[in-house]
Amino acid sequence: MGVAMEGMIRLKGLSLAFPGVQGLTRVLDNVDLDIAPGEFLAIVGPSGVGKSTILRVIAGLARPNTGTVEMAAPAPGRRAVSLVFQDARLLPWRTVIDNVAFGLEKLSMPRAERRRRAAEALTLVGLGDLVDRWPHQLSGGQRQRVALARALAVEPETLLMDEPFSALDAITRESLQDELIRLRAATGRTILFVTHDIDEAVHLADRVVVLAGSPGRIVATHRITEAHPRSRGQGRAADQAKAIRASLDGEVLINGAAT
Amino acid sequence: MTLPSLGRSIAAPVFGLAVLLAIWEAIPGLGLVNPAFLPPPSTLPAAFLRELASGQWTLAIRNSLGHYTLGLAIGVLAGIAFGIITGMARFAEAVTSWVVRVLRPIPGLAWVPFAIIWFGVSPSAAVFIIAIGVFWIVYFATHGAIRAVDRDLIEVAEAFGFRSAPERLLKVMLPAATPGILVGVRTAIGQAWMAVVAAEIFGVAGLGQRMMQASSLIATDIVVVYMLTMAALYGLLDTLFVRLQTWVLRWKA
Questions:
Q1: Domain B45-248 annotated CATH 3.40.50.300
Q2: How confident is the model at residue B109 (pLDDT cuts 50, 70, 90)?
Q3: CA of A26, closest CA in chain B: separation in Å?
Q4: What span, in angstroms and rounded, lies between the C-alpha atoms of A80 and A72?
Q5: CB atoms B175 and A91 under 8 Å
Q6: Residue A60 burial (C-beta neighbours within 10 Å; 0-12, 13-18, 19+)
């Protein structure tokens, strides 16, 4: 990892292939992408196009065959990036607050400080009074909020979100989307958000990058300038969603594709 | 049967035990079997009091509990340690796969000659036999539980920077494997009592030795007293362990 401009992530020539049944399966092809500090960037595309792989590479969970990820080293007591998965992946043997403090245990700090920051992150996601619950006592939406708090507690320069709301029911999903917009306004975090839901991307992001093809490459970039709060599926949002769908023409059906 | 549920939950097992005792009392009492071969339960309290008065009972229990505790502890700790190593490291699993297949089927009793040669007729020999019996149970439980840990949770640890093997072990694998390991330990708590008898049969002082002495004199009432003693000790330990297990796993749904 090289050094980039403060708070920025720069992907250069990222390509990646997995060994599969018939030799190598290429997943990403020469992806270049800059994420500006404070930006909310969404990556949309059909299943299997390598959207999640980009996040996994940035999070250090996968290694590209070629290409580089440049980002600045984090300040002490923070992480450069943290990841919210599609499913909450809470550790069932830890209480809610201990789950949120999990990542802080790697950033050497006293226990009292860990608890303070974890409690703060839980308050931020509206679960301040569930600190001592076990994960199995929570609803799906609450679990995903805890996962979000866990990612926020390490105060990442960039928050990586991998289809974080796709496993939730529509009502919970919309309320969490609006909460994310509020959180972003409150914290100013850079967010890289992967989804296969174009409407979700248009509702949330400042910029939408369309990934398509096999192996996946960036086929279009759309800037969403409309201020929040945005209307869902009407007016400009609908036009922009339509434009994004057009840039995916000829690719597999996107909406409702399972991952 | 209109007993309230609490009454019924106590009444049913008591009733079962009472039926067992009644049949047991009746068989020698009706002359179906020689009482010397099957001592009726009514003769047991007197036999027990004789053992207690002579100090044999207390001494045997103290000796056996010593072997049991030490053998169980060594076997459980070694089983957990080796299970973790072969569960986490493919190389260790490959190297040991046939060693395990060769050693695993050897019954505890078959180790007795070696235990005597290596340790003499001593408490160490008994501890060795018990530890071996316990080791395999806990080893396989731990190995399986570690291998079954959800990959997704290990990835969470990696995503938050816990990348070394000890970090992965302590932060995710060990807590995630704990339910499976505890199932093995509970089985071991029972298995270790069987090993106690095998381990003491050749003359190391304790319950097993006392049972062998009594049985060679056809003092069957004494044999039964020690059988019941072992059952009581096992019942007590198992109950305590289940309490501990429930508390440790209180996070489970």
A1: no
A2: confident
A3: 22
A4: 7
A5: yes
A6: middle
